[in-house]
């Protein structure tokens, strides 16, 4: 079941309606999904008879099933009274019965319109046996999985690391990205084993001021990060030092640069700067020879 309101910003709320054949009462429970922002109320409607027409509220004692006609004797203990057997004070009301609760029917639950969209097997069998009618097809009201809009991650803007920026889009309270701890323990520095591949590179450019610039590219096997350092060259007029801070760098075709992408003669593009790798240290050459089949 669902409740559809006619306001501009109405939403569909899924309900479960229970009708009790013993006394023609009904109760309604709301299906509240996780993280819906709604209070988990136990019931949408307590078990009671639901009138078809809802009018103004009556004053206390204005409507009663039995009317006291007269009272004899003292008030309280020892007194006597006569009840109206004709029930002249009772107001005739029409309540919903099982015949009104079929698929597609609209039920006015104290001013809120509820549309019945489906029923279980027992209810369908009850309608078939008692009223000799075929149950209509269920009403589809839930949005299909194909129509649900996929979450779009905005492009990386260059501030901080891409993993941190992506974490801000996935959760309301951002959490630090998790590192591969097992890989970190295996590939972290152990004695003389630095687990850092170092390459000598130059810029792939035609600008005279940048042709003679040399760089040291370091690839850290523990977490796949890359740093670029420019050594000092006297009287060059260029400030030496850290050129690209240690971080994971993206390739143009997607993904991150890995160890197999760095070799002598390779052309790499780090943040719009194109480099040509011209040499490598002994550790990088040894590592490449030992892992050439990986």
Describe the structure in your own words.
The chain has helices spanning 121-130, 162-170, 181-187, 208-211, 282-290; strands at residues 2-3, 13-20, 25-30, 45-48, 68-72, 80-83, 106-109, 112-115, 196-203, 214-220, 225-230, 241-247, 267-270, 273-280. It is α+β, with helices and mostly antiparallel strands and 294 residues long. The chain has a six-stranded antiparallel sheet, with no helix packed on it. The protein has a six-stranded antiparallel sheet with strand order 12-11-10-9-14-13. Strands 5-6 form a two-stranded antiparallel sheet. The two termini are 58 Å apart. The model is unreliable at 1-6 (pLDDT under 50).
Q: Cα-atom Rg, whole angstroms?
A: 39 Å
Determine the fraction of residues in helical runs and give it as a percent range.
10-25%
Spatial strand arrangement across the major sheet? 4-3-2-1-8-7
- In DSSP terms (H or I, runs of 4 or more residues), the helix count works out at 5
Strand content bin:
25-35%
Counting DSSP E segments of at least 2 residues, the number of strands comes to 14
Please state the structural category: alpha+beta
Major pleated sheet: 6 strands, antiparallel
| SSE order | EEEEEEEEHHHEHEEEEEH
């Amino acid at each position: 079941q669902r409740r559809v309101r006619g306001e501009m910003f109405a939403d569909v709320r899924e309900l479960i309606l229970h009708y009790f054949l013993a006394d023609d009462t009904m109760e309604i429970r709301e299906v509240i999904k996780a993280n819906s922002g709604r209070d988990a109320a136990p019931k949408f409607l307590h078990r009671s008879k639901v009138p078809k027409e809802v009018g103004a509220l009556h004053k206390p004692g204005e409507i009663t099933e039995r009317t006291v006609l007269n009272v004899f004797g003292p008030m309280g203990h020892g007194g006597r009274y006569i009840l109206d057997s004709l029930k002249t004070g009772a107001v005739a009301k029409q309540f919903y019965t099982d015949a009104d609760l079929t698929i597609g029917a609209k039920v006015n639950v104290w001013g809120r319109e509820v549309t019945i969209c489906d029923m279980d097997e027992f209810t369908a069998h009850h309608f078939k046996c008692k009223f000799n009618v075929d149950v209509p097809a269920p009403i589809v009201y839930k949005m299909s999985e194909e129509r649900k809009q996929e979450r779009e991650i905005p492009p990386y803007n260059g501030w901080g690391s891409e993993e941190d920026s992506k974490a801000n889009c996935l959760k309301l309270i951002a959490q630090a990205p998790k590192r591969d701890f097992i890989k970190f323990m295996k590939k972290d520095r152990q004695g003389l084993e630095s687990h850092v591949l170092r390459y000598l590179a130059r810029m792939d450019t035609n600008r005279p001021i940048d042709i003679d610039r040399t760089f040291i590219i370091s690839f850290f096997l523990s977490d796949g990060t890359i740093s670029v350092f420019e050594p000092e060259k006297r009287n060059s007029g260029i400030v030496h030092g850290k050129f690209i801070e240690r971080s994971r760098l993206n390739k143009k075709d997607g993904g991150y640069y890995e160890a197999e992408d760095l070799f002598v003669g390779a052309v790499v593009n780090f943040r719009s700067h194109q480099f040509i790798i011209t040499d490598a240290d002994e550790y990088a050459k040894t590592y490449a020879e030992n892992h050439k089949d990986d």
